[in-house]
Amino acid sequence: MRALPLLLCLVVVLAGCRTRGEPSVREPAVPAPPIVAAPPTATRGEFTIEADKLDTWNAIGQIAVRTPGVDYQGRAQMLDLYSLRYRGLDFFVLTKALPAAQTGNRITTKVTATTLAGKPLEDERVAHLLAHFQRELPAEIASVRARQAAERHAKPKAKAKAKKARTSP
Protein backbone atom coordinates (compact mmCIF):
# COMPACT_ATOMS: atom_id res chain seq x y z
CA MET A 1 0.00 0.00 0.00
CA ARG A 2 2.80 2.39 0.71
CA ALA A 3 4.15 1.76 -2.76
CA LEU A 4 0.96 2.93 -4.46
CA PRO A 5 1.36 6.67 -3.62
CA LEU A 6 5.01 6.47 -4.62
CA LEU A 7 4.08 4.80 -7.90
CA LEU A 8 1.44 7.46 -8.61
CA CYS A 9 3.97 10.25 -7.97
CA LEU A 10 6.42 8.57 -10.32
CA VAL A 11 3.75 8.33 -13.06
CA VAL A 12 2.86 12.02 -12.66
CA VAL A 13 6.53 13.05 -12.86
CA LEU A 14 7.11 10.92 -15.94
CA ALA A 15 3.97 12.27 -17.60
CA GLY A 16 5.25 15.81 -17.08
CA CYS A 17 8.55 14.94 -18.77
CA ARG A 18 6.91 13.54 -21.88
CA THR A 19 7.56 15.71 -24.93
CA ARG A 20 4.60 16.72 -26.98
CA GLY A 21 4.40 17.02 -30.72
CA GLU A 22 3.97 20.29 -32.59
CA PRO A 23 0.89 22.18 -31.50
CA SER A 24 -1.80 22.26 -34.15
CA VAL A 25 -2.30 26.01 -33.77
CA ARG A 26 0.83 28.16 -33.78
CA GLU A 27 1.00 31.20 -31.63
CA PRO A 28 2.05 34.39 -33.40
CA ALA A 29 5.76 35.09 -33.01
CA VAL A 30 6.59 37.94 -30.72
CA PRO A 31 8.34 40.64 -32.78
CA ALA A 32 11.91 41.38 -31.74
CA PRO A 33 12.40 44.74 -30.08
CA PRO A 34 13.85 47.37 -32.42
CA ILE A 35 17.60 47.80 -32.29
CA VAL A 36 18.50 51.18 -30.87
CA ALA A 37 21.90 52.51 -31.85
CA ALA A 38 24.06 53.61 -28.97
CA PRO A 39 24.92 57.31 -28.88
CA PRO A 40 28.28 58.13 -30.44
CA THR A 41 31.22 58.03 -28.07
CA ALA A 42 33.70 59.88 -30.28
CA THR A 43 33.68 63.29 -31.88
CA ARG A 44 34.89 64.32 -35.31
CA GLY A 45 37.67 66.39 -33.84
CA GLU A 46 38.97 63.75 -31.44
CA PHE A 47 42.62 62.88 -31.95
CA THR A 48 45.56 61.21 -30.24
CA ILE A 49 49.12 62.39 -29.87
CA GLU A 50 52.23 60.54 -28.73
CA ALA A 51 53.00 62.65 -25.69
CA ASP A 52 52.55 62.68 -21.94
CA LYS A 53 49.10 63.71 -20.69
CA LEU A 54 50.41 66.53 -18.49
CA ASP A 55 52.62 67.95 -21.25
CA THR A 56 49.66 67.80 -23.65
CA TRP A 57 47.37 69.47 -21.12
CA ASN A 58 49.88 72.29 -20.48
CA ALA A 59 50.46 72.82 -24.21
CA ILE A 60 46.72 73.00 -24.98
CA GLY A 61 46.38 75.76 -22.40
CA GLN A 62 49.24 77.72 -23.98
CA ILE A 63 47.78 77.34 -27.48
CA ALA A 64 44.26 78.22 -26.29
CA VAL A 65 45.27 81.54 -24.71
CA ARG A 66 47.16 82.58 -27.87
CA THR A 67 44.46 81.57 -30.36
CA PRO A 68 42.28 84.44 -31.59
CA GLY A 69 38.58 83.88 -30.90
CA VAL A 70 39.13 81.44 -28.03
CA ASP A 71 37.77 82.58 -24.68
CA TYR A 72 39.65 80.77 -21.93
CA GLN A 73 37.09 80.29 -19.15
CA GLY A 74 38.89 77.98 -16.75
CA ARG A 75 40.80 74.78 -16.19
CA ALA A 76 40.96 71.81 -13.85
CA GLN A 77 44.25 69.93 -13.86
CA MET A 78 42.86 67.13 -11.65
CA LEU A 79 40.15 66.52 -14.28
CA ASP A 80 42.51 67.17 -17.23
CA LEU A 81 40.17 69.69 -18.79
CA TYR A 82 39.91 73.21 -20.06
CA SER A 83 36.66 75.13 -20.27
CA LEU A 84 36.66 77.16 -23.48
CA ARG A 85 34.34 79.27 -25.58
CA TYR A 86 34.97 79.43 -29.31
CA ARG A 87 32.78 81.22 -31.84
CA GLY A 88 29.88 81.38 -29.37
CA LEU A 89 30.05 77.74 -28.25
CA ASP A 90 30.95 76.69 -24.68
CA PHE A 91 32.66 73.30 -24.32
CA PHE A 92 35.34 71.31 -22.52
CA VAL A 93 38.62 70.10 -24.00
CA LEU A 94 39.77 66.94 -22.23
CA THR A 95 43.10 65.13 -22.24
CA LYS A 96 43.19 61.45 -21.29
CA ALA A 97 46.18 59.11 -21.12
CA LEU A 98 45.60 55.91 -23.07
CA PRO A 99 46.68 52.52 -21.68
CA ALA A 100 50.08 51.38 -22.91
CA ALA A 101 48.66 48.03 -24.06
CA GLN A 102 46.23 49.87 -26.31
CA THR A 103 48.93 52.05 -27.88
CA GLY A 104 51.76 49.58 -28.40
CA ASN A 105 53.60 50.65 -25.22
CA ARG A 106 53.86 54.26 -26.41
CA ILE A 107 52.90 57.15 -24.15
CA THR A 108 49.81 58.47 -25.91
CA THR A 109 47.17 61.02 -24.98
CA LYS A 110 43.68 61.38 -26.41
CA VAL A 111 42.34 64.92 -26.82
CA THR A 112 38.62 65.39 -27.26
CA ALA A 113 35.89 67.98 -26.84
CA THR A 114 32.61 67.49 -24.99
CA THR A 115 29.55 69.53 -24.16
CA LEU A 116 29.34 71.02 -20.70
CA ALA A 117 27.22 67.96 -19.80
CA GLY A 118 30.05 65.62 -20.88
CA LYS A 119 28.42 64.38 -24.10
CA PRO A 120 30.40 64.00 -27.34
CA LEU A 121 30.35 67.21 -29.33
CA GLU A 122 29.72 67.18 -33.06
CA ASP A 123 30.21 70.76 -34.24
CA GLU A 124 32.19 72.33 -37.08
CA ARG A 125 33.59 75.08 -34.82
CA VAL A 126 34.98 72.55 -32.35
CA ALA A 127 36.39 70.35 -35.12
CA HIS A 128 38.16 73.44 -36.51
CA LEU A 129 39.70 74.34 -33.13
CA LEU A 130 40.79 70.76 -32.40
CA ALA A 131 42.43 70.53 -35.83
CA HIS A 132 44.33 73.72 -34.91
CA PHE A 133 45.39 72.13 -31.60
CA GLN A 134 46.54 68.99 -33.41
CA ARG A 135 48.73 71.02 -35.79
CA GLU A 136 50.24 73.18 -33.04
CA LEU A 137 50.69 70.61 -30.26
CA PRO A 138 54.00 68.96 -31.26
CA ALA A 139 55.90 72.26 -31.32
CA GLU A 140 54.14 73.58 -28.22
CA ILE A 141 54.87 70.39 -26.25
CA ALA A 142 58.56 70.75 -27.12
CA SER A 143 58.41 74.37 -25.95
CA VAL A 144 56.67 73.43 -22.68
CA ARG A 145 59.24 70.72 -21.99
CA ALA A 146 62.12 73.12 -22.65
CA ARG A 147 60.59 75.74 -20.34
CA GLN A 148 60.08 73.15 -17.58
CA ALA A 149 63.68 71.92 -17.96
CA ALA A 150 64.98 75.49 -17.73
CA GLU A 151 62.92 76.07 -14.58
CA ARG A 152 64.26 72.86 -13.00
CA HIS A 153 67.82 73.90 -13.92
CA ALA A 154 67.33 77.39 -12.45
CA LYS A 155 65.99 76.18 -9.08
CA PRO A 156 69.29 74.74 -7.77
CA LYS A 157 71.11 77.95 -8.72
CA ALA A 158 68.52 80.07 -6.91
CA LYS A 159 68.75 77.85 -3.83
CA ALA A 160 72.57 78.09 -3.86
CA LYS A 161 72.40 81.90 -4.05
CA ALA A 162 69.92 82.04 -1.18
CA LYS A 163 72.05 79.71 0.94
CA LYS A 164 75.20 81.74 0.19
CA ALA A 165 73.42 84.97 1.12
CA ARG A 166 72.36 83.49 4.49
CA THR A 167 75.84 82.21 5.34
CA SER A 168 77.70 85.42 4.35
CA PRO A 169 78.50 87.84 7.19
UniProtKB/TrEMBL annotation:
Sequence segments annotated as region (Disordered): 144-169
Ranges of biased composition (kind: Basic residues): 154-169
Domain of life (superkingdom): Bacteria
Name by which UniProt lists this protein: Lipoprotein
Organism: Lysobacter stagni
Species classification: Bacteria, Pseudomonadati, Pseudomonadota, Gammaproteobacteria, Lysobacterales
